[in-house]
Design the sequence.
């Protein structure tokens, strides 16, 4: 579909699909669209539902009826409640996602809309100023009772339900007349349970007074002054550790006022000093100028090395968007990143910055959402699912760290990638999309080759203030072992760690912990056990305790017993890889008792606000070393960090996945990029058993192009993305042989029915065969990237027995 097709959203057709909110569930139903209502996608309507009238959202127009419905069965929409509550493009987006990712529209809606929006909303009718001034005799006898009733109400406003009780069958014709005459309007009131909070706010009137004040009272005034003269009463009381009475006394003296105001439950962040746009470097300036000249839809790859100042480019690209009363959407990989980034945006743009992610409470989500639908110019920063927020008037979309795999949803349908959705959304909204990264995904990079006038490559090749990228030392751990060092820290890393406190500097130690999949390598010669039929390492499969140790290729299902000695050098030091943060912190304590460390991983950051707390503690120098996992690679800007240590690069290099080289390069380059971002130069120590690995060489020279030059031809030869498209069929069930046989049967069906341009690989077991007592097998389909083909999921699912479920992963990022 091209962007121009998408603007055909008027509804000339007789039927529409309406998302109806019923208690406890939502569903999509067909209705007649009365031509006089002129309904559009995105309108809120009221519809008959059983014996009741319910609220609904028009989600799609139908040109023909579904086969199982006859025209007599279908009832008409009652009324339009609010028009343009959502933009029609928004529904177009959801529909496209449902189609592209082979899911039901309902599944996409559940992802995009806060639950119970309409279910708990109340439809109300109010008079317009015109209606208030209207003499009842000016309208027809049918409408007079309603007009009188509304005029009697002090506010000119009643709930629909009340009016219905009062007027019964007179309501509908009367209301139609008043609505059309512009005398009344109908609106939705926010759900009761989620009604905005009203809270007391304290405003400073006078900071100095001739009256004598108690120390407490002076404290309160000082805090208010420092916070810009206004604070919620509850926070003021908390910050000054005083009682309400102290504030009330100040109000009596006329030094402050206390008023009640609606408090939006937007995620509350500490107050931040405002900053000014920075003076840009020449590279930043060139990139910004290019972005600002764009009109309409464009995709921009902003390829800037770590520490090149991409964020400042985003900030300055957004400023004119807001001035033009448009909004901007900023997507980031993980919430651990957002405190720092959000602070920067709030410092620049103040309160029009909202944060939206899946960890918000229902109240916070609802308020952020309501704010968006007001249509004011604003910035929403969020994670993956924020790509669906219903911002009106979108002027720019930014995906920061666009290569990050957390933009892809893998477990649940729709298995969408936020980058792909954002690209389509930018097309719909006719606005630019900026993809920022130091290590662009190969898909994003490869779009360059099929360059259209809508694709732009912008580069920031240098760090700010010409700071050097940190030198990367590869340490050969085989040598360390040979020379008698059994510690997990190599001698160069030990020396660097010892040096840290002497120079008041800090270090990051990175541990890779992705998935369960472990590979086996020899600690003496570095050999890795590989599949004889495929170019991947064998995975160790954990099924249950006490099971025989098997190594398997999960591409072709070859398997072998775990050998006792290394097939290359006969050494018995064959080792599974995988090392946790805990193990590393234990070793730190044992070997460097004087070093203070903090652990930064998913265990220690589970609680809300914990990311911010840990990073602040580290920034304030409460520890020398931050030990963590993947989270560390994502955009942290910590000026004091001069040393980055990678404990074992190998566990990244040997994942049995076509994308493991790309992921390894990205992760290692990003983690290396945390070093030397401040005034002191940085250094990176990368421990490995395979120092000659080409990915490590590319990381060492900070050479993205070199990496691409060696990786793309391999992808092309095997038709992997970005040259081919992948589709993964995941089967699971509690009965292993049934799952396996089902997968086999469907693979056979695919082989018979799919054309020769689609490769069918497998079935093979997933690398973790059993998860939560379910056995998992999969089939991988590989096809040319331009293949116009829609998988027949319904047919495949009809071939699955009840004990086996089948899920599709469209464009899977990993196939383990
Ligand atoms: P990136 O996201 O590209 O890795 P950042 O956006 O984190 O880099 O920027 C790195 C550092 O440089 C930040 O501390 C930022 O405040 C600073 N910075 C960015 N632009 C400028 C500039 N024009 N002048 C001075 N400092 C800058
Ligand atoms: Zn060996
Ligand atoms: Zn194989």
Sequence:
């Amino acid at each position: 579909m091209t962007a121009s097709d998408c603007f055909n959203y008027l509804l000339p057709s007789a039927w529409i699909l309406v998302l109806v909110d019923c208690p406890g569930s939502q569903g999509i139903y067909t209705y007649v669209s009365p031509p006089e209502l002129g309904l559009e996608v995105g309108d809120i309507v009221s519809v008959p539902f059983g014996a009741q009238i319910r609220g609904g959202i028009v989600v799609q127009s139908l040109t023909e009826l579904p086969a199982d419905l006859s025209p007599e069965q279908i009832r008409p929409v009652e009324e339009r409640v609010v028009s343009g509550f959502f933009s029609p493009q928004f529904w177009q987006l959801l529909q496209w996602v449902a189609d592209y990712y082979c899911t039901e529209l309902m599944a996409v809606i559940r992802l995009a809309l806060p639950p119970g929006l309409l279910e708990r909303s109340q439809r109300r009718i109010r008079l317009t100023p015109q209606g208030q001034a209207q003499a009842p005799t000016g309208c027809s006898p049918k409408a007079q009772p309603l007009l009188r009733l509304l005029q009697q109400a002090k506010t000119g406003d009643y709930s629909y339900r009340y009016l219905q009780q009062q007027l019964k069958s007179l309501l509908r014709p009367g209301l139609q007349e008043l609505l059309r005459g512009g005398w009344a309007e109908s609106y939705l009131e926010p759900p009761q349970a989620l009604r905005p909070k009203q809270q007391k706010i304290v405003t400073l009137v006078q900071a100095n007074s001739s009256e004598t004040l108690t120390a407490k009272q002076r404290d309160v005034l000082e805090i208010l002054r420092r916070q810009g003269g206004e604070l919620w009463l509850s926070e003021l009381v908390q910050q000054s550790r005083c009682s309400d009475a102290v504030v009330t006394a100040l109000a009596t003296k006329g030094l402050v006022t206390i008023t009640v105001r609606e408090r939006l439950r937007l995620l509350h962040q500490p107050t931040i000093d405002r900053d000014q746009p920075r003076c840009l470097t020449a590279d930043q300036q060139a990139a910004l100028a290019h972005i600002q000249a764009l009109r309409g839809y464009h995709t921009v790859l902003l390829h800037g090395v770590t520490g090149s100042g991409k964020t400042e480019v985003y900030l300055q690209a957004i400023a004119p968007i807001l001035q033009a009363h448009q909004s901007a959407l900023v997507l980031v990989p993980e919430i651990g990143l957002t405190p720092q980034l959000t602070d920067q945006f709030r410092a620049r743009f103040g309160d029009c910055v909202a944060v939206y992610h899946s960890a918000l409470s229902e109240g916070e989500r609802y308020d952020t959402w309501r704010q968006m639908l007001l249509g004011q110019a604003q910035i929403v920063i969020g994670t993956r699912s924020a790509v669906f927020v219903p911002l009106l008037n979108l002027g720019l979309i930014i995906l920061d760290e666009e290569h990050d795999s957390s933009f892809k949803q893998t477990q649940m349908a729709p298995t969408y990638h936020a980058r792909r959705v954002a690209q389509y959304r930018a097309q719909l909204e006719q606005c630019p999309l900026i993809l920022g990264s130091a290590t662009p995904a190969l898909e994003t990079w490869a779009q360059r080759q099929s360059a259209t006038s809508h694709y732009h490559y912008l580069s920031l090749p240098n760090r700010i203030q010409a700071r050097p990228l940190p030198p990367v030392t590869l340490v050969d751990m085989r040598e360390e072992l040979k020379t008698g060092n059994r510690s997990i820290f190599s001698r160069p890393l030990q020396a660097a760690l010892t040096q840290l406190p002497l120079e008041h500097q800090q270090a990051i130690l990175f541990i890779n912990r992705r998935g369960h999949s472990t590979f086996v390598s020899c600690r003496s010669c570095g050999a890795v056990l590989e599949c004889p039929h495929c170019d991947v390492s064998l995975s160790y499969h954990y099924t249950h305790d006490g099971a025989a140790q098997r190594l398997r290729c999960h591409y072709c299902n070859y398997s072998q017993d775990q050998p006792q000695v290394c097939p290359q050098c006969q050494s018995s030091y064959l080792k599974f890889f995988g090392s946790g943060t805990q193990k590393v912190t234990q070793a730190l304590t044992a070997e460097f008792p004087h070093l203070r460390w903090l652990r930064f991983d998913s265990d220690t950051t589970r609680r809300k606000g914990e990311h911010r707390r840990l990073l602040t503690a580290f920034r304030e120098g409460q520890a020398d070393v931050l030990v963590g996992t993947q989270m560390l690679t994502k955009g942290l800007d910590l000026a004091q960090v001069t040393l980055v240590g990678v404990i074992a690069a190998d566990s990244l290099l040997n994942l049995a996945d076509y994308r493991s080289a790309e992921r390894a390069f990205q992760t290692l380059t990003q983690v290396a990029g945390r070093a030397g971002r401040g005034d002191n130069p940085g250094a990176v120590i990368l421990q490995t058993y395979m120092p000659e690995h080409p990915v490590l060489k590319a990381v060492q020279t900070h050479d993205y192009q070199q990496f691409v030059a060696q990786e793309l031809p391999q992808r092309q030869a095997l038709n992997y993305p970005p040259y081919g498209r992948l589709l993964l069929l995941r089967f699971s069930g509690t009965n292993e042989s049934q799952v396996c046989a089902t997968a086999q049967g469907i693979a056979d069906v695919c082989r018979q029915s799919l054309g020769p341009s689609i490769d069918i690989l497998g079935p093979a077991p997933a690398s973790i065969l059993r998860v939560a007592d379910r056995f998992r097998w999969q089939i991988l389909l590989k096809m040319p990237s331009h293949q116009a083909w829609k998988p027949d999921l319904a047919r495949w699912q009809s071939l699955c027995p009840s004990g086996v479920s089948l899920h599709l992963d469209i464009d899977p990022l990993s196939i383990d």
